[in-house]
Write a structure and sequence with these properties.
Length: 398
């Protein structure tokens, strides 16, 4: 379990502090459509400003692939930060160039600036040490508060920590506090619910979770590889044939460890994947061992919804990653709603990770009754997998 120094554990007054944020906000026609990530970064920024630090903010946005591309400029972020903080946040027109260095050198205590999109330089994602060193040369302290990229070893997420005292901000502190406790020392029963479509990525999480949880619930697209491992036909449903043996191993491991592994007993099938995704669909509820060869499973079935909701309700700690079905379609959202509702109504510590799972909770109106919705999809998954996150491992221990 991580026990990392935070911004409150280092002296920042009068110092130049480089802060890696996750300002990868959605844009439409150059306008920010959700400023959630900016708003979430404010506590860390405000604390540093109130301490009299000189704050140099940085982030990536989109995938400009190492080239300057005005489409991915952080200008809209600088403007929004200026509004939210009620003080000017100037945007440098480069990252470690003349403008950035001049603006950083001119910062006064309690002022903040923003570097241009760090992925405009190919050296960022290569974690180039020279680039990291140049970034570090502008500051005296490094703060990582971008949990969403903490599973990546890039120059601004990890490399720069080789050259500066490195601590975490409030966002990362909260993520590792809540998820770390759930994994290391959970209140039991501890139930994990896995679903979604990224079968390959997510199956690996199961191996680690089986050493921690009392009950593991499988839904969404990944359930069908398990059903195939049980010898059932899965029709046109998502299937990762290479992982069938792995699923068999996991079922065996669950039995040996005394972990309850819950698989769908029935499933909602359609003639095919809806196109567009929210198009009206005709569904049928079939037993898990009787999926017709020409149909595709797109949600857990009605009996399964009840079973899963009940299992979730009996837990003291629940971790959920991945929707139970194609929730983007109202007809195929029932399984996801059933699980989200069970979590919302539960007294347990409930943790949701994964971009689409978080979106589902918000869209369906359950988000405010979940204990913690992680800000990082891939990062939270790697956390659950028991992997070391480079963006956190690089920070100083308490
Ligand atoms: P998260 O972002 O929460 O980690 P994923 O990206 O793995 O989740 O998966 C989310 C996607 O999984 C959603 O777009 C949903 O439509 C899809 N999905 C869920 N169940 C199925 C299924 N049975 N077949 C195909 N896609 C599914
Ligand atoms: Mg996703």
């Amino acid at each position: 379990m991580y026990n990392k120094k935070t911004i409150e554990d280092v002296a920042v007054a009068g110092k130049k502090v480089l802060v890696r944020c996750d300002f990868n906000v959605p844009l439409k026609d150059g306008k920010i459509t959700s400023d959630k990530r900016i708003v979430e970064a404010l506590p860390t920024i405000k604390y540093l400003l109130a301490q009299g630090a000189k704050v140099i903010l940085c982030s990536h946005m989109g995938k400009p692939k190492g080239e300057v591309n005005p489409k991915y400029s952080l200008a809209p972020v600088a403007a929004r930060l200026t509004e939210l903080l009620g003080q000017t946040v100037e945007l440098a027109n480069d990252i470690v160039g003349e403008d950035a260095k001049a603006k950083a050198a001119a910062l006064k205590e309690g002022q903040a600036m923003l570097l241009e999109n760090v992925r405009f330089d190919a050296r960022e994602e290569k974690n180039d040490p020279e680039f990291a060193k140049e970034l570090a040369s502008m500051a005296e302290v490094y703060v990582n508060d971008a949990f969403g990229t903490a599973h990546r070893a890039h120059a601004t997420t990890a490399g720069v920590a080789d050259y500066l005292p490195a601590v975490c901000g409030y966002l990362i502190q909260k993520e590792i506090g809540i998820m770390g406790k759930a994994l290391a020392n959970p209140e039991r029963p501890f139930v994990a619910i896995l679903g979604g479509a990224k079968v390959k990525d997510k199956l690996n999480v199961i191996n680690n979770l089986l050493t921690k949880v009392d009950t593991l619930i499988i839904g969404g697209g990944m359930a069908y590889t398990f059903l195939a491992a049980k010898g059932y036909g899965v029709g046109k449903s998502l299937l990762d044939e290479e992982k069938i043996d792995y699923c068999k191993d996991m079922m065996k491991k669950a039995e040996e460890k005394g972990v309850k592994l819950l698989l769908p007993v029935d499933t909602t099938v359609c003639a095919g994947f809806p196109d567009p995704i929210d198009a009206p669909v005709e569904t049928k509820n079939v037993s898990a061992d009787a999926i017709p060869a020409d149909m595709e499973g797109l949600d857990i079935g009605e009996k399964t919804m009840e079973l899963y909701a009940e299992a979730a309700k009996s837990a003291k700690t629940v971790v959920w990653n991945g929707p139970m079905g194609v929730f983007e379609n109202p007809t195929l959202a029932k399984g996801t709603i059933a699980v989200a509702k069970a979590l919302a109504e539960s007294e347990a510590t409930t943790i949701v990770g994964g971009g689409d799972s978080a979106a589902a909770c918000e869209q369906l109106g359950f988000a405010d009754r979940i204990t913690h919705i992680s800000t990082g999809g891939g990062a939270s998954l790697e956390f659950l997998e028991g992997l070391e996150l480079p963006g956190i491992a690089c920070l100083q221990d308490k």
